[in-house]
TrEMBL record:
GO terms for molecular function: carboxylic ester hydrolase activity. PANTHER family: ABHYDROLASE DOMAIN-CONTAINING PROTEIN (PTHR10794), ESTERASE_LIPASE_THIOESTERASE FAMILY PROTEIN (PTHR10794:SF84). Residues 133-371 form the AB hydrolase-1 domain. It comes from Solanum stoloniferum. Keywords: Hydrolase, Serine esterase. SUPFAM superfamilies: alpha/beta-Hydrolases. Belongs to the AB hydrolase superfamily. AB hydrolase 4 family. Pfam families: Abhydrolase_1. This is AB hydrolase-1 domain-containing protein.
């Protein structure tokens, strides 16, 4: 039977280009902190504290907290724009600046003859040393190198001397499609191949990754799957829906129906662009339903869940949720969420598992919407509030990773010297 897979139709998106209306203001948000499991203000090594406007928790909280330079500052959302989660989400998608970056595309051929587009910053091969830390960026659903949040993060990391590559999933970011297969929340095959490819290309570099929304879900599932064998030295998850069943429930409420229709429209466009590859599908596939889907759930029911062998859409969402992967994560992981995220609900965050994992840290901001975070010194059109904190974390991990490697190298040199001296002893 012919098989086809398509972009996951889970309720996560990095762009809302088809939205036309905004909702009325939502009521003020009140956040309560449980002192036994989260902190309102915790002292850092330099005497500073994390600000009480943030929820900071996780088993690695005390270990990583000293690496952040400005968590002692209050989270100050930009006036009016951040007054409503939907306005903030849509504003950031439409009006955030898109930095101009020259990229060089590499098309990676996968084992099943599929194609992945990797976008590197032009000139980095000549200007950066081979052991520069390397950062892989995973955009959200239908997202790619052109998205504003991706460009801002890319530029910030590049300005710190990091090598950066954007992982454009099949069919996204104008990535070529050569087989009847795209990607989904349950599909980790391409992630494995990208990490292996990048690692082989720059064997002297420490590898890191950042994922947004669906990209974050895929990244955390990869970390849990690889566990102790993971090739990444550190990772960051942003706006992760975590529990896709919960996210799907909220996706059909109120104004979220607008996102549902917009995403369904985007998925239909991606599908129709490559429709010839999906002709004559057999089995449970309902190509007509997918091609004319009015909701994300309809699209998943017609194509996605069948492609990956799931009995139902709920079965697909349940078995593709990254919330189940946290307990197996052995790589330093920072998760940043917004308490009012309309697409990645706060109630889906696996707080207990994050608190019990000594490798994980969670920061929850009181506002931010989905992929918004219109706050900080560069608001409203500059980078998201998260970007400088993400780099603080990554550079903290890289510093200790490099220091440990240098220490091991010095120990090896010392051991070789002792061995050499013993070889010259005369008895």
């Amino acid at each position: 039977m012919a098989r086809a897979t398509i972009c996951s139709a889970t309720p996560i998106s990095s762009s809302f280009r088809h939205l036309k209306n905004l909702s009325n203001s939502s009521p003020p948000l009140h956040v309560t902190f449980r002192r036994s499991k989260t902190i309102c203000a915790t002292a850092m090594s330099d005497g500073k504290v994390s600000h009480p406007s943030l929820e900071v928790t996780g088993g690695a909280r005390d270990k990583f907290l000293s690496g952040f330079k400005s968590l002692h500052n209050p989270y100050s959302p930009y006036p009016i724009v951040a007054g409503n989660c939907h306005i903030e989400t849509i504003f950031s998608a439409f009006f955030r600046s898109v930095p101009d970056v020259r990229l060089r595309r590499e098309c990676l051929r996968t084992k099943d003859d599929g194609s992945i587009a990797l976008d590197w910053v032009s000139g980095d091969d000549r200007s950066l040393p081979p052991d520069s830390p390397l950062l892989i960026l995973l955009p959200g659903l239908t997202g790619g190198s052109d998205d504003s949040y991706v460009r801002h993060m890319l530029l910030r990391a590049r300005s710190r001397g990091w090598r950066v590559v954007v992982f454009n999933s099949r069919g996204c970011g104008d990535s070529p499609v050569t087989t009847p297969q795209f990607y989904s929340a349950s599909f980790l095959g391409d992630m494995y191949e990208v990490v292996a490819h990048v690692s082989n290309r720059y064997p002297a570099a420490n590898l890191y990754a950042i994922g947004w929304s669906l990209g974050a879900n895929i990244l955390v599932r990869y970390l849990g799957q690889e566990s102790h064998s993971c090739l990444l030295s550190g990772a960051v998850s942003l706006c992760n829906p975590f529990n896709l069943v919960i996210a799907d429930e909220d996706f059909h409420k109120g104004f979220n129906n607008v996102y549902d229709k917009a995403l369904a429209n985007s998925l239909r466009k991606i599908f129709k662009k490559h429709a010839l590859l999906f002709e004559d599908m057999e089995g449970e596939f309902n190509i007509s339903l997918a091609a004319n889907a009015k909701t994300v759930r309809e699209f998943d029911d017609g194509l996605t869940r069948v492609s990956f062998g799931f009995k139902s859409v709920d079965d697909y969402y349940s078995n593709s949720s990254s919330s189940d992967s946290i307990t197996n994560v052995c790589t330093p992981l920072l998760c940043i969420q917004a308490a009012n995220d309309p697409i990645a609900p706060a109630r889906g965050i696996p707080r207990k598992d994050i608190e019990e994992n000594s490798n994980c840290m969670l920061i929850v901001t009181p506002k931010g919407g989905h992929l918004g975070w219109v706050a900080g010194p560069e608001a409203p059109r500059g980078c998201p509030w998260t970007d400088p904190h993400v780099m603080d974390f990554l550079e903290y991990i890289e510093h200790y990773k490099s220091a440990s490697a240098a220490c091991a190298s010095n120990q090896e040199t010392m051991n070789n010297g002792v061995t050499e001296r013993f070889q010259h002893l005369e008895v």
